[in-house]
Write a structure and sequence with these properties.
The chain is α+β, with helices and mostly antiparallel strands. The protein has helices spanning 8-15, 17-25, 34-46, 64-71, 77-83, 100-107, 167-172, 235-247, 265-275, 291-300, 337-345, 429-439, 459-463, and strands at 95-97, 110-113, 116-122, 130-137, 153-157, 160-161, 177-186, 189-200, 202-205, 209-217, 220-227, 252-256, 263-264, 283-288, 306-308, 312-313, 316-317, 325-330, 350-355, 363-365, 368-369, 386-388, 390-396, 411-412, 455-458, 468-469.
């Protein structure tokens, strides 16, 4: 992503006169208010909806002392952070973390994890009880050594039924060990079967390249890539995966993003460049920031707001497929950077979307630290808080980005939990439909026979991995205000 921010000092000195006035006050921030002060100033500068939050107004406080008085009314940083957000129906995704090492790991696919990636649904006939179903097992995890697989069901943890009030503490609490109480699905009924699976969480790095293979069907050599997270530290391996597909001479391509909740905008841009290859230097996506930052860049450096197709990762050439048509598999868990791929490719090629309506996350965030410029350098040693606020909306090259309610598939079909199938197998329902559309053997989308359940949440949305984020914030903003 481009991070060239020219002539920013002059603009910020004028646009953020409020903060400059505060600096002239020479009033110290008490130690007990340092975190709250960081939260307010970071959101005042970067938050996408800053102009819509009265307490974030540039003219709200005449000096630092008035701001200190306001901040002292909040004993918990998390409460202040939430109070400074717009209505949660508008901002569904901003969040704050008390330990930035956990946040950094999360954004790169490193988590305390036993290896079971799962979804949660309501038990039929209940508005409080829920059950889990296994979407896939992460390789090289504790779960990969246990008797548990995709399509298995569980209703409890350590003998306690999962409910809306306890699922977080049971599944995501501090305990590294727990036992899942397994269940069977019979005629639409979830029934405990007495079996258990003991699991242990470890620090686990998830390689998002879950499956990469070629399926031959008639005259078609169909590349199939199941990609489960836009983690930038795997970009080179992703490029190698595309190199393998290219060397095998594929004629068609299926990109499976059904459980991909997003990640790096830079990685999404690189992935789009691997899929295409014909458009280096052309616009893949456009960023829209709050009015203060947007006005400056539109006047002085509009190119800084563009994400461009590329032909390199650093100095390494990108392995591009030069496709003009792609099949993308989606579900209600497909979010943020995954949706950016679907939307960003549409002005350049035919995108055939198969599956369910996506989440509808058309906004992106950035990690802000308590430092002079909100970057990683010179972070406040007194605490480890960091924020992941929404700072921009993103559109495709044609200017379309209004998919708050999700992207609707070309062929809509929901996963039926009774007929999930084996991921990567040509008979798996979603992949089977995609192959049929490619080869012309499927004339229309047919409902999958089986039982559907009301979705609740999935593990990645609960843990905060449904992100679309920039690698870093624009640098030097606060320094410019000194």
């Amino acid at each position: 992503m481009r991070t060239t921010y020219k002539f920013i000092i002059a603009f910020l000195l004028a646009a953020f006169a409020f903060q400059s006035c505060q600096d002239q006050d020479d009033i110290a921030v008490p130690t007990n208010l340092e975190i709250n002060n960081f939260i307010w100033k970071g959101l005042n500068l970067y938050y996408l909806w800053q102009a819509d939050v009265p307490n974030l107004s540039d003219n709200k406080f005449a000096n630092q002392q008035q701001l200190n008085t306001f901040l002292s009314g909040y004993s918990k940083p998390e409460v202040l952070f939430d109070d400074l957000r717009v209505d949660k129906s508008i901002d569904r995704f901003s969040w704050i973390e008390s330990d930035y090492t956990k946040l950094e790991g999360l954004l790169q696919g490193t988590t305390d994890n036993n290896g079971v990636d799962f979804g949660l649904s309501y038990v039929p006939g209940s508005t409080t009880n829920i059950f889990g179903w296994v979407r896939y097992i992460i390789p090289n995890s504790d779960a990969s050594t246990k008797n548990i697989k995709r399509g298995d069901f569980f209703t409890g943890v350590n003998g306690t039924q999962l409910t809306l009030s306890n699922y977080e503490s049971l599944l995501f609490g501090s305990n590294s060990n727990y036992t899942l109480n397994m269940a069977d699905l019979n005629a639409g009924t979830i029934t405990p079967n007495g079996k258990t699976v003991a699991l242990t969480k470890t620090v686990l790095d998830e390689n998002p390249i879950f499956i990469n293979k070629v399926i031959t069907s008639g005259t078609h050599k169909i590349g199939y890539l199941m990609y489960n997270g836009f983690y930038a530290n795997y970009d080179t391996q992703l490029n190698d995966a595309f190199g393998s597909l290219k060397n095998q001479g594929i004629t068609d391509f299926v990109l499976d993003l059904r459980y991909n909740s997003g990640g790096s905008v830079q990685t999404a841009t690189r992935l789009a460049s691997m899929i295409t290859g014909q458009y280096p230097g052309k616009v893949f996506a456009k960023q829209q920031w709050n009015s203060k930052i947007e006005s400056y860049f539109n006047a002085n450096d509009p190119g800084a707001l563009l994400n461009l197709f590329t032909d390199k990762i650093g100095t390494t050439p990108i392995n591009s497929l030069n496709l003009t048509k792609i099949y993308i598999l989606t579900t209600k868990s497909t979010a943020s950077a995954s949706e950016l791929i679907v939307n960003g490719l549409k002005p350049y090629m035919e995108v055939v979307q198969i599956g369910d309506v996506t989440v509808g996350k058309n906004v992106g965030s950035v990690t802000l630290y308590d430092s002079p410029d909100f970057g990683k350098e010179n972070r406040n040693p007194n605490h480890k808080y960091a924020m992941q606020p929404i700072v921009l909306k993103i559109t495709n090259a044609a200017g379309f980005g209004d998919y708050y309610n999700g992207l609707t598939p070309t062929y809509q079909q929901k996963e039926a939990l009774s007929t999930l199938g084996v991921l990567g197998d040509p008979t798996e329902p979603y992949l089977y439909l995609a192959i049929g559309k490619i080869t012309g053997t499927a004339r229309m989308a047919k409902p999958i026979p089986g039982f559907e359940f009301d979705d609740f949440k999935d593990v990645k949305s609960i843990t905060g991995q449904n992100q679309m984020y920039l690698e870093k914030a624009p640098e030097g903003l606060l320094k410019a205000l000194e």
